Amino acid sequence: MSKFRKEGGKETPAISTASLPDIVFMLLFFFMVSTTMREVDLNVSVLVPEAKEIVKLEKKDLVSNIYVGVPMRKFQKTFGTEPKIQLNDQFATVDDIQSFIASEREARKEELRNKLTTSLKVDQYTKMGVIIDIKQELRKASALKLNYSTRQAAE
Protein backbone atom coordinates (compact mmCIF):
# COMPACT_ATOMS: atom_id res chain seq x y z
CA MET A 1 0.00 0.00 0.00
CA SER A 2 1.01 3.49 -0.72
CA LYS A 3 0.84 6.31 1.66
CA PHE A 4 -0.58 9.74 0.83
CA ARG A 5 0.92 12.59 2.54
CA LYS A 6 -0.06 16.24 2.61
CA GLU A 7 2.47 18.81 1.76
CA GLY A 8 1.70 21.57 4.19
CA GLY A 9 4.56 23.81 3.24
CA LYS A 10 3.18 25.05 -0.12
CA GLU A 11 1.35 28.38 -0.38
CA THR A 12 -1.24 29.40 -2.96
CA PRO A 13 0.28 31.40 -5.81
CA ALA A 14 -0.41 35.14 -6.05
CA ILE A 15 -3.08 36.36 -8.49
CA SER A 16 -1.57 37.69 -11.67
CA THR A 17 -2.42 41.33 -12.33
CA ALA A 18 -0.77 41.50 -15.74
CA SER A 19 -4.10 41.72 -17.61
CA LEU A 20 -5.63 44.28 -15.24
CA PRO A 21 -4.68 47.38 -17.31
CA ASP A 22 -6.25 45.79 -20.40
CA ILE A 23 -9.50 45.19 -18.53
CA VAL A 24 -9.54 48.72 -17.13
CA PHE A 25 -9.03 50.29 -20.57
CA MET A 26 -11.65 48.02 -22.10
CA LEU A 27 -14.21 49.13 -19.47
CA LEU A 28 -13.22 52.75 -19.89
CA PHE A 29 -13.66 52.55 -23.66
CA PHE A 30 -17.04 50.83 -23.26
CA PHE A 31 -18.39 53.54 -20.96
CA MET A 32 -17.03 56.32 -23.16
CA VAL A 33 -18.81 54.89 -26.19
CA SER A 34 -22.11 54.00 -24.54
CA THR A 35 -22.61 57.09 -22.36
CA THR A 36 -24.64 60.00 -23.66
CA MET A 37 -24.03 63.43 -22.30
CA ARG A 38 -26.94 65.54 -21.11
CA GLU A 39 -27.50 68.36 -23.56
CA VAL A 40 -29.49 70.63 -21.25
CA ASP A 41 -29.04 71.41 -17.55
CA LEU A 42 -32.44 71.59 -15.93
CA ASN A 43 -33.18 74.85 -14.14
CA VAL A 44 -36.73 73.79 -13.28
CA SER A 45 -37.90 70.77 -11.34
CA VAL A 46 -40.07 68.52 -13.48
CA LEU A 47 -41.98 65.51 -12.21
CA VAL A 48 -43.86 64.35 -15.28
CA PRO A 49 -47.30 62.78 -14.79
CA GLU A 50 -47.94 59.05 -15.06
CA ALA A 51 -49.64 57.42 -18.04
CA LYS A 52 -50.61 53.87 -18.91
CA GLU A 53 -50.53 53.98 -22.71
CA ILE A 54 -47.16 55.45 -23.71
CA VAL A 55 -45.08 55.22 -26.88
CA LYS A 56 -41.36 55.82 -26.99
CA LEU A 57 -40.08 58.37 -29.51
CA GLU A 58 -38.00 56.81 -32.26
CA LYS A 59 -35.70 59.63 -33.35
CA LYS A 60 -34.70 61.79 -30.42
CA ASP A 61 -32.48 63.99 -32.56
CA LEU A 62 -35.63 65.41 -34.19
CA VAL A 63 -37.13 66.46 -30.83
CA SER A 64 -37.06 69.94 -29.30
CA ASN A 65 -37.83 70.04 -25.59
CA ILE A 66 -39.75 72.68 -23.69
CA TYR A 67 -39.53 72.30 -19.91
CA VAL A 68 -42.13 73.84 -17.58
CA GLY A 69 -41.91 73.68 -13.80
CA VAL A 70 -41.01 75.42 -10.59
CA PRO A 71 -37.46 76.85 -10.64
CA MET A 72 -34.81 74.99 -8.68
CA ARG A 73 -33.99 76.32 -5.20
CA LYS A 74 -30.94 78.25 -6.36
CA PHE A 75 -33.13 80.20 -8.83
CA GLN A 76 -36.17 80.75 -6.60
CA LYS A 77 -34.87 84.01 -5.11
CA THR A 78 -34.60 85.47 -8.61
CA PHE A 79 -37.57 83.88 -10.39
CA GLY A 80 -39.95 83.00 -7.56
CA THR A 81 -41.88 79.77 -7.05
CA GLU A 82 -44.37 80.03 -9.91
CA PRO A 83 -43.90 77.64 -12.86
CA LYS A 84 -41.45 78.95 -15.47
CA ILE A 85 -40.63 77.92 -19.03
CA GLN A 86 -37.12 76.70 -19.86
CA LEU A 87 -35.89 76.63 -23.45
CA ASN A 88 -32.47 75.01 -23.79
CA ASP A 89 -30.44 76.23 -20.77
CA GLN A 90 -32.25 79.45 -19.95
CA PHE A 91 -35.57 80.70 -18.66
CA ALA A 92 -37.94 82.16 -21.22
CA THR A 93 -41.39 83.60 -21.65
CA VAL A 94 -44.24 82.45 -23.84
CA ASP A 95 -43.26 85.12 -26.40
CA ASP A 96 -39.84 83.48 -26.88
CA ILE A 97 -41.29 80.16 -28.09
CA GLN A 98 -41.72 81.18 -31.74
CA SER A 99 -38.09 82.28 -32.06
CA PHE A 100 -36.99 79.09 -30.27
CA ILE A 101 -38.88 76.92 -32.78
CA ALA A 102 -37.45 78.94 -35.67
CA SER A 103 -33.90 78.48 -34.40
CA GLU A 104 -34.48 74.75 -33.86
CA ARG A 105 -35.68 74.40 -37.45
CA GLU A 106 -32.67 76.31 -38.75
CA ALA A 107 -30.34 73.95 -36.91
CA ARG A 108 -31.76 70.94 -38.78
CA LYS A 109 -31.21 69.87 -42.37
CA GLU A 110 -33.74 71.08 -44.93
CA GLU A 111 -35.35 67.66 -45.45
CA LEU A 112 -35.75 67.07 -41.69
CA ARG A 113 -37.39 70.37 -40.75
CA ASN A 114 -40.93 69.09 -41.35
CA LYS A 115 -40.31 66.08 -39.10
CA LEU A 116 -39.41 68.17 -36.05
CA THR A 117 -41.39 67.21 -32.93
CA THR A 118 -41.86 69.49 -29.93
CA SER A 119 -41.89 67.67 -26.60
CA LEU A 120 -43.47 69.27 -23.56
CA LYS A 121 -41.91 68.12 -20.32
CA VAL A 122 -44.27 69.68 -17.82
CA ASP A 123 -44.42 69.24 -14.06
CA GLN A 124 -47.58 67.41 -13.06
CA TYR A 125 -48.65 70.24 -10.73
CA THR A 126 -48.41 73.00 -13.36
CA LYS A 127 -51.67 74.74 -14.13
CA MET A 128 -53.19 74.15 -17.54
CA GLY A 129 -53.27 77.88 -18.42
CA VAL A 130 -49.49 77.92 -18.98
CA ILE A 131 -49.69 74.87 -21.23
CA ILE A 132 -52.53 76.38 -23.29
CA ASP A 133 -50.47 79.55 -23.81
CA ILE A 134 -47.51 77.44 -24.97
CA LYS A 135 -49.72 75.47 -27.36
CA GLN A 136 -51.09 78.70 -28.85
CA GLU A 137 -47.55 79.94 -29.53
CA LEU A 138 -46.62 76.59 -31.07
CA ARG A 139 -49.60 76.87 -33.41
CA LYS A 140 -48.47 80.34 -34.47
CA ALA A 141 -45.01 78.92 -35.18
CA SER A 142 -46.56 76.03 -37.18
CA ALA A 143 -45.07 73.46 -34.83
CA LEU A 144 -48.02 71.09 -34.91
CA LYS A 145 -46.26 67.85 -33.98
CA LEU A 146 -46.57 67.82 -30.22
CA ASN A 147 -45.55 65.25 -27.64
CA TYR A 148 -46.28 65.16 -23.92
CA SER A 149 -43.57 63.43 -21.89
CA THR A 150 -44.78 61.06 -19.19
CA ARG A 151 -43.53 58.22 -17.09
CA GLN A 152 -44.86 54.67 -16.99
CA ALA A 153 -47.59 54.16 -14.43
CA ALA A 154 -46.99 51.40 -11.91
CA GLU A 155 -49.46 48.56 -12.24
UniProtKB/TrEMBL annotation:
Superkingdom field: Bacteria
Membrane spanning residue stretches: 12-33
Main location: membrane
UniProt keyword Oxidoreductase, yes or no: no
Biological process according to GO: protein transport
UniProt keyword list: Cell membrane, Membrane, Protein transport, Transmembrane, Transmembrane helix, Transport
InterPro entries for the chain: ExbD
Gene Ontology CC entries for this record: plasma membrane
Topology class, membrane: Single-pass membrane protein; Single-pass type II membrane protein
Pfam families: ExbD
Compartment(s) of residence: Cell membrane
Alphabetized GO MF terms: transmembrane transporter activity
Annotated family: Belongs to the ExbD/TolR family.
Record protein name field: Biopolymer transporter ExbD
